[in-house]
Design goal:
Length: about 375
Amino acid sequence: MYLPATLFVDEYGRTDLPIGMTKVQLLGVEGSEKMKKLRSNVEAALEALGMDATVKVISDVEELMRFKINGIPAMVINGKVVLQKVVPEVEDLQILLNLFKAKSSKIFDMKHILVPTDFSQVSVGALKFAANLASVNGGEVTVLHISHPEFDPNLLFPEMNFQDLEAFQQDRMDHFVKEVFDKNIPEYLKTKVEIGFAVEQIVKHSSSGEYDLIVMGGRGDKGTLEKWFGSVSTSVTQLAKCPVLLIPQNTEYAPFRHILFASNFESTSAETLSYLSSIATTFGADVHFVHVEDESSTKKYKEVEKHLFEILFEGGQPAFSFTMTKVQGESVSEALHEYATKHNIDLMIMVHPHRSFWENIFHKSVTKSMAFNTTIPLMVIPA
């Protein structure tokens, strides 16, 4: 098997595989023998793997130049050039495509849900919401309680050892779950008790690959959480490596029908839009792309709109209906909330870009502000 040495290396020297819907572009002369064979082999490999992918042949010279390739035929997967000047056999292409399949399939699932709880009424609502979400998608829920003796005011004996502490908290967990579900505990629900610091442990779980989504409770009463600098839920939304869904208190579960996606330029990547598409198609929801420009915006609305259209229509007609809107307001979070209320939005999605430690301290985070003040379910996706 021959694969070029530059496989998976982009123009910045990064070797990470892309995440998201698989899109295959074949570069070369349409109708040529090499192109016919390459397309035939690619389609056979995709069929053998059972991969749902789009295959497009690109022959326009100007478009070919955009990829900066050294020769044809060439193959591009999710925007990355992975083959040049060769026509691999079907078996070789299966190995190559399977790597992308393994990396991309995870992002579409919401079947493994983690629900951290402090046994409060706020977390009751989050757990019920997650259970309904799991039942729709045939998934499972893990309820997690993390305790630290020095910070848990509910402990009767703070000096107890870790083994006794875990047993004590497991009893509380069992009682909590029975009360939430009126003793009819779903078969797909399991519990876990750990000793440690809440944010640290939850973030660790988010990067383990075991969970597709974290569901947590949010107060929903504007301003209250802002007094707590170290709020667990808002810290997790900023640090987690998988999507986090915040559920305001007293929110009843209902299938998502109208989704708001806050579309600044850095959030509109093919990867995040693929994840958005999977949610919209699962629930049959429409999507409102809402762009709010403020003093920190580096890209104007027309540029964002063009970027969105390029991604959304790259593989053909999108599988969901959508609208694009620009709104104005001195506060990004207030402008988005006003739009959400007016258009009966039942899920808001934002992308939180991971910045360095110092940038996080001095940057006025829109996602953090939204997490503090949300009154509808808010999903934060890591960039």
